[in-house]
Amino acid sequence: MKTYLEIFKELNAVPRPSHHEELVADYLCRFASERGLDYSRDANNCVVIRKPASPGCEKADTVVILNHMDMVCVAKEGYLRDGRRFDPLKDGIRAYVETDEAGERWMKAEGTSLGADNGMGLSMALAILDDDSLVHPALEVLTTTNEEDGMSGAEGLSTSFISGRKVVNLDSEAYDEITVGAAGACLQVGRWNLIHDTVPEGYAFFKLVIDGGLGGHSGVDINKGRCNCNKELASALCRLSGQLTGLHVCSIEGGTANASIASCAEAVIAVPQDCSSAVQTFVSTLKDELSTRFADSDHGISARVCPWEDQPDFISNASDFIRTIASLPFGVLEMRSDMPGTVMTSNNIGVVKTDGEVMTVSCHTRSFSNEDQDRLSASIRNQMTEGGAADVEMLMNTGSWVERADSPLLDLTCRTFRDVLGFEPRKVAMHFVLEAAYYVEKYPGVEIASIGPRIIEPHSTSERVSLDTAEGIWKVTVELLRRLARLTNPNRFNSAIPKY
Questions:
Q1: Is residue 304 a contact partner of residue 324, using CB atoms and an 8 Å limit?
Q2: Is 46 within 8 Å of 153 (Cβ atoms)?
């Protein structure tokens, strides 16, 4: 029998960025097969593992334990693994544990995001499957793909893939809260066909970089005033082109994930040689401006420029998409009036990428109002089209979700928290998207309670999880399952809470 931390270590040895979940799906299927458990795997690599109820609990309702297998895998600029650049498709995550001054234990990762979102919850679900001493109803451990970058796994689930209607989701990130609602989300990508031309003689080439941003989750951290380096770089290029006649942009790249705030961005530019010193002066001023504006949110933000030895062609229509990126909305657009401190609507400019003959720009729009989300996404689509985009593709469009207030599952989960941990968790609606909206639509009558350990800075290289709170969530989950098993036969088991 393995602990959830031992399983988490195994899981992090398997590369699992969004859109590349084949290896981790293989791991889950092997895990089930080695334990003689029934499982199914669909065309999108979503996996459900089924475990029969504990003896005497067969009449209890089946419980679904929900997680996703993919992670946002980002690495620090210049991070090397064994002497070479870190490759998220080939390299696993190396985790370690530190104890802070208050004595709290934190798990972090060497040079990358940790994958506690949602690997910690998934590891707990697998540990429950691995422990035959636990009391539980029939279980369906459902693990989906591409939750972080489109939710295509949940969207593509068949209506018969699971039978349970009580869903315990272990994908929340605040220990003292139960997530009872989540914003909707729209992910769309604009594409520009690039027109290349030769840079004239007498030009100097430079690489302009804005980096050192804290980045973070584009839902959880969107209200923290952080720098989006994609937008700042595009704005800087617009300003610089207004000051220097003849500036050409050869390439532009920024961001590492659609659901992350871009912590770095860079562009290769060409300017007349007599303008070289003006570029240096501009970037020096830009660095000071960024440091001042983001002093409270991104203490490491910086801008720099260096000569670039290569002499690539320039993009003659670069001004179209650069102006568009600079004008796209970023950050909080509206706060909820009924829930102080909760974001209603926001937008993130996630990834800007030059790929051969095509430039792509992604926008991740979130809102608790489906109408506002549709209006904002349509406005962004129009901005991209008017800015010369040849195509704007909608990759995801899911509505918001709010669990009903009289849910028996929520009530039981709250009471379990109180009895096991000694506090009543707050019920909150979060400005990140969960797959719940798909389940409400696909599986009528479903109830969902979303809980999880304290995870700080998900989707960033600063990601860390409190192991003390993870242990608390483990205890709550185990006890919650025991209580759900007892609902149809309350006299079979001692009502006292076991000592863990």
A1: no
A2: yes
Give the Cα-Cα-Cα angle 293, 220, 443 (nearest 5 degrees).
155
Look up residue 75 and give its DSSP letter.
B
Per DSSP, the residues of 346-378 read: EEEEEEEEEETTEEEEEEEEEES-HHHHHHHHH
- Using a cut of 0.85, tell me whether the model's pTM lies above it: no
- Residues 6 or more apart whose CB falls under 8 angstroms from that of 310 comprise 205, 268
Grouping H, G, I as helix, E, B as strand and the rest as coil, residue 315 is strand
Distances (CA, A) of 130 to 46, 49, 213: 20, 11, 41
DSSP 477-495: HHHHHHHHHHTT-TTSS-S
- Residue 306 to residue 208: CA distance in whole angstroms: 7
| Cα distance between residue 465 and residue 114, in whole Å | 8
- Tens of pLDDT along the chain (500 residues) come to 999 999 999 999 999 999 999 999 999 999 999 999 999 999 999 999 999 999 999 999 999 999 999 999 999 988 999 899 999 999 999 999 999 999 999 999 999 999 999 999 999 999 999 999 999 999 999 999 999 888 899 999 999 999 999 999 999 989 999 988 889 999 999 999 999 999 999 999 999 999 999 999 899 899 999 999 999 999 999 999 999 999 999 999 999 889 899 999 999 999 999 999 999 999 999 999 999 999 999 999 999 999 999 999 999 999 999 999 999 999 999 999 888 888 999 999 999 998 889 999 999 999 999 999 999 999 999 999 999 999 999 998 988 988 888 999 999 999 999 999 999 999 988 888 788 888 988 999 999 999 999 999 998 899 999 999 999 999 999 999 999 998 765 554 444 555 43
By the 8 A CB rule, do 435 and 424 touch? no
Amino acid at the residue 371: E
Distances (CA, A) of 382 to 151, 390, 399: 24, 12, 21
CB within 8 Å of 113: residues ≥ 6 apart = 71, 72, 73, 74, 75, 93, 458, 459, 460, 461, 463
